[in-house]
Amino acid sequence: MRHLPVLAAKPFSCSQCAACCRLVGKVIPGWPVDTQTGACVHLANNGSCKVYETRPSLCRVDSWGVGPAWYQANYDACNAMQVALGIDLSFRVPQ
Ligand code: SF4
Ligand code: SF4
To answer: What local confidence, expressed as pLDDT, does residue 4 receive?
Structure first.
């Protein structure tokens, strides 16, 4: 019996830039945001998540999927958000 090759899952290389946390209110209606900054209410001043251990499933990008198309979609979205916010190049997600 022949076995199909199993593609190795490539974990998403989140650089923890917090761009998604800062823009989530613009993308997802109803998300709880800080009225002054527009960022998620759980985003701390140092860029970390105050509820990281219990963050919503939507924030668990590593659990969404695997495979080249999934990685590419996240790569495109994350880096586009970083460009829009003027985030330093050192945070770019690697291909
Ligand atoms: S925008 Fe992408 S790289 Fe930045 S914190 Fe969110 S998931 Fe990670
Ligand atoms: S819950 Fe945490 S990880 Fe999710 S958007 Fe808010 S700050 Fe970011």
So the answer is: 45
Q: Is the pLDDT of residue 6 over 50?
A: no
Percent of the chain's residues with pLDDT above 70: 89
Give CA angle at 51 (10, 83), nearest 5°.
55
Task: Please choose from 78, 87, 90 the residue to mutate so as to test ligand 1's pocket, defined by most ligand atoms within 8 A of CB.
Answer: 78
Phi, psi of 18 (to 5 degrees): 70, 10
Pick the atom of ligand 1 nearest to 19's CA.
1
**Ligand 2, atom 5: closest residue by C-alpha:** 21
| Residue ranges per structural domain of the chain | 19-91
